[in-house]
Structures
1.
Amino acid sequence: MASANNNNASYQCPVCGYDQMRESPDSGNICPCCGIEFDADDLNKTLVQLRGEWIENGFRWFSKGTLSPKDWNPYRQLILAKHGGDLLLNPRFPNDANYRNAVDESFSNIRMAKQLRVLRERHHPPLTQAQVAEKTEMKQSRISELENVDYSSWSVSTLRRFARAFGVRLVFGCAPWERLPLEMAQGLNIESLWVPPFDRNAPFSAPVGNALDQQSPFWKALRSSGQMSNEPFRSGEIGALRERPKPFADGGVFVGMLSRSQPTTETRAKL
Ligand SMILES: [Zn+2]
């Protein structure tokens, strides 16, 4: 018997990824989104097969009684539920350009929103939405809206504000479809969403006159492209005068902290 505590519980459908099911995906229950009846429809087919069929048949919202969420997007739902590969493998992908574009656009929107959040939260020190709002001269409610994976109305000028606020580059361009599977596989990891700000970028933080840095792949490539002369660096040129960045407090700082703690040891030795 369901207790009162379970009234607000929600479950995720293992077929379509809808995560607001009122009842668990168990015997006799039906997902209002994909219409799968558990312990019935799934007796002779795997979840992957059922998912593939739902996608191929146009993944329409099933229930007449439970309405779909506002701005419901089955592409986004499947990607967030980590079923993006099923979207790519579906026969609709090669056969339907609208479908293909919707898969790509939904993925890009999710990625952009998640990246804004990662850049804010992994900033040193981490920033609140209010602080980002101040830096970008936008309202906090707007920051919240843009960090939501449902957002899709990106503008280049807005994204530039974020890029400047976080000290990163905004890159835009076209890409081949063959990259999409790998992007979908890796593109939503925090590691791939995080971008270090300017002063954490190796080519611009090298010490003056370091021969090794003159031979670094960054500058070698620029020289061989003709974008830069072959003359040796002059003193004070490039980011050469910049100090190497100090390690972050939550990683690699150990060495720095150790050297700073040495006086303490000496002090103790004197006592
Ligand atoms: Zn479902």
2.
Amino acid sequence: MTNEYRYKLQNSSKKNRCPECNNKTFVRYIDTNTGDLLPEQYGRCDRESKCSYFVAPPAEIQETKCLFVPFDKLNDYSNKAFQIKADGKIFFLPKAMTFEVIETGCYVSEWYLNNTDKPPHFLDNDYRFYLRGERIDKPRYLNNKDRPLRHTAACFPVDVFKQTLQGYDKNVFIQNLLSHISFPFEIKDIETVISQYYLGTVCNGYRAGAITFPFIDKYEKIRAVQVKQFDSTNHTWKIR
Ligand SMILES: [Zn+2]
């Protein structure tokens, strides 16, 4: 079965949070066979000029659930279809929807059986899964509660965070540490701390020169960035 059109971008009026830029401009993929959304890393960000995150679902997740269709007889009718005789009647099954033929019946796409007029009798409780034409023991993604979803909590925009990782010559707190008269810190020690904790600088605006402390979770997602403004005596500013 070709899966070219099986996964579609969801109606674009439904916007989700983009895994890259965190804006609500993200359109996810839907499995048209089941109505399920695909794992949330698959989709397209509509902020094309600024973000352009676009990850199409790979072949590995194109799994198909098939149900057993018992038959009395099967004919190889054409290069497109099988003809079966079941319950005394004749049915045609597209080969693209028929994933395996055994002696007493065949396994046919559940989606096809549920979306075709007058399908042959099929068994709901006898099913198999296929991935790129090969039978697999159990589904890895579809109809599977254990599908690998990305962490979903709100995050700080990565592009804004990246802009903080500069301007250390204007960073009042860092410069205070370097110029501390009684006990100056070594540049290499300060650089180590900056890179370990991703300390940054607010470069523009009324808080220019402030230091930033990102909170990074175990998924390496930036959950928040704290901004602290110090004066030349290395005391924090009062909240204005
Ligand atoms: Zn985006």
3.
Amino acid sequence: MDNKLTNHLVYFDVTDECNLTCKICMYKDKHTDVPLHLKLNDYSRKNVSNIINHDDTGLVVLSGEGEPSKNFDCINEILDLSTGNNSFQIITNGGWDVAIQDYLSTLEQKSLDKNDYYSIRLSIDPFHISQIDMRNYVDFFKYHLNSNSNKVSIAVRGLLEYKNATRTHIYKILSTIDNSPLIEERSPLVDAVHMHDKEIIIHYKNIVNNNGAFNKHLFPMLDYINLLENKNGVPFTMGHISEQKKGLDITIKNTGDIFFYGIEYKSVGNIFFDELSINKLLQEVEHNEIINKLYNRSFKEIISKLNTHKIIARDIEKINNPYWVVRVISEKYPELFLKTIKGLK
Ligand code: SF4
């Protein structure tokens, strides 16, 4: 794989407000009576535009520490900042307050005007299914089935621990629309749903258990990393790896703070106060010893070093997800964490 970082993923947490209360939620403590929505101003708009429109930015994800559709204004504003030919993914639990098919049609028009590509990624697992009206999911799938657009699509996120629940629910949803839905297992991490000439991809991830609320069988983190390595054909590291191309994995929080995803021990800037560009963020990876090691060293090697500290090993086993290990461990054991990563030869 080319070592140059060129396929960047930019992730926006546009809000911490949520309409659900999932048992496995990683952000429960963020859900308060006073939500914080990301609200851009002129200064931050310039930064956001620089980052999302950079030639090497591959995908912009509009997500949240809650339900992103609670801040549709910001989602629309970021989409409008695109100068065209960009790919966006909007993550949602499916509980939109607006008419689903109308908003998807608006997106379709926007995608044509800009020559952008939008994918709506629905979370479909037992924790979400039990709280979302099935008619919402039906509306998303119906739109996809009836639309001629190849620029707006639907994807699904399921959990490795509950693959069958996701498949069964999708089968139920589709059976209300079409009498011959077909779900094909493409790999341990990916299923494909076929409807007429359309396809919907289901991506499976393992459960993040940082609050310890989940006490049934967890899909082990190292097995999950092995599946990711088989899928990508390269050792798993922090950073964004897709189709053997590697890039920055940038998260912009609702406070404007910027982090590298999974390495959230240190903010690398703020869209409201700092002048930002992809090149500046690349420099940060090059010159910050900790971030550099986390981007370049095999994550399994890092885990094995961290596991030499019994107190950390217990937490790693509980957390069970590679993208949450660093943020939790670096917060709980800052000195031990920094010493261990610096000590990697
Ligand atoms: S929908 Fe997402 S953010 Fe909201 S409670 Fe469920 S897991 Fe948490």
